[in-house]
Design brief:
Two copies of one chain form a homodimer.
Chain A lengths: L14 H15 L6 H8 L6 H4 L3 H24 L5 H13 L3 H12 L11 H30 L8 H14 L12 H17 L1
Helix pairs in contact in A: 1-2, 1-4, 1-6, 4-5, 4-6, 4-7, 5-7, 5-9, 7-8, 8-9
The first copy, chain A, binds a DNA duplex through helix 3.
Pfam family, one (chains A, B): TetR_N
Protein name (chains A, B): HTH-type transcriptional repressor KstR2
Keywords (chains A, B): DNA-binding, Transcription, Transcription regulation
Chain lengths: 206, 206
DNA sequence: AACTGAATTGAACTTAACTCAGGTTGATCT
DNA sequence: AGATCAACCTGAGTTAAGTTCAATTCAGTT
């Protein structure tokens, strides 16, 4: 459990700008489809300067994924922290999951599209560190959801079922949206949020 | 709607062997992580021979995805064709979705992990043909599920809801399993199948 | 002004996908 | 059997994109 220390930003560091540009590129065109050099162009630096901040294109991707996972976890905790009623907590958690900016939508998309990266180990040190951190955060987020279900089951608000499996399924249902959702598409996020909220409650509580 | 004609197998064609080896490699190590030349080795031919059968590594991937989508659709139709009761049809469809061989698990995993490829257009003719065919099949499969729901709603077996959105969600829930399921893992597929079957019924019918 | 470390760069290197020009194999026909 | 033709295969070379490296600039400090 080695925590990753965010490199403190020197005053003229372009790290944040690179991450932001990378999210835009990777999220819209896809990771493989975007040239690493294009990200550099957008930020306004030469491609080699990227390596001052990230060990590789993949290292940047893994960093984006970890940050998004941290964000998801934080939001979950924030949204459910003082809601006692299990059903209401579940509803709040789902709503929080869809209460996101367009930029965050891209981050979720990137995360979902590259989950498979978290399986195999990486060659380089820093990449592997990010991978392991992200993998752990996936488990943390899964635990967030299963704990919510366990609590509800023990209180008698939810029927008893395999909380681990059901929690993972609820999470899978919620994030599956990010594979197809587009802010420009026909379905507003609010509508999706409501439908999924209802679906989750029925899945878990009936 | 131009259908793809499967190249008829000459007696010494290695196409099937290549597809099979590619499914193993792409499914276990991941598409990006496996070298195209490794697939050639497994089949027992030089790397350049691959290009006799596929225009590119990606063309092979897209073909695998299309074939898997065709299989999924066929299984759905087969499983539901003479079940009138909507709830039973839904149950049958879910069970069929998880009634798969280990090789098919890999194909599902590959499909899920590279759905994003179907968004952007491809440079070369044959790749683009496969992509378009796959994209269409995604819609066909989505329609399979929404139709099932529409039928159930009109018969009064399911409460009225946005069938398109709900159908997509059910499908999303079902396929989300392939991102983490491993035949060697602790949870048998039968158990997953049962839990998801129940969850889907509750989502849709209550 | 000299010093320091962060930030940046152009040129060279590496790897893996891909192309090409030609060679081999084997089924089929006369 | 021998000729033929298409399917099948290969070694050598090309290309594109990620990456490395040695050298340079820049901003703030002593």
């Amino acid at each position: 459990m080695t925590r990753i220390v965010e490199p403190e930003a020197g005053p003229r560091s372009k790290r944040a700008a690179i991450l932001s540009a990378a999210v835009d590129c990777f999220g819209e065109a896809g990771f493989e489809a975007t040239k690493w050099s294009t990200v550099a162009e957008r930020v306004g630096i030469g491609q080699t300067a990227l390596y001052h901040y990230f060990e590789s294109k993949t290292h940047c991707l893994l960093t984006i994924m970890r940050l998004e996972l941290e964000r998801s976890h934080d939001r979950f905790v924030e949204a459910t922290k003082d809601v006692e009623d299990p059903v209401e907590a579940l509803r709040a958690a789902v709503r929080a999951a869809y209460d996101v900016s367009p930029h965050e939508v891209l981050q979720m998309r990137i995360l979902q599209n590259h989950m498979d990266l978290l399986s195999g180990t990486r060659r380089s040190k820093r990449e592997e560190a990010e991978r392991v951190a992200a993998r752990q955060l996936v488990q943390v987020v899964e635990r967030d959801w299963t704990n919510l279900l366990v609590k509800g089951m023990s209180q008698g608000a939810f029927p008893l079922r395999d909380a681990q499996l059901l929690g993972g399924s609820v999470l899978g249902l919620i994030v599956s949206v990010w594979r197809w959702y587009r802010p420009s598409g026909p379905t507003p996020l609010s509508e999706i949020s409501e439908l999924i909220e209802g679906a989750c409650v029925r899945m878990v509580a009936s």
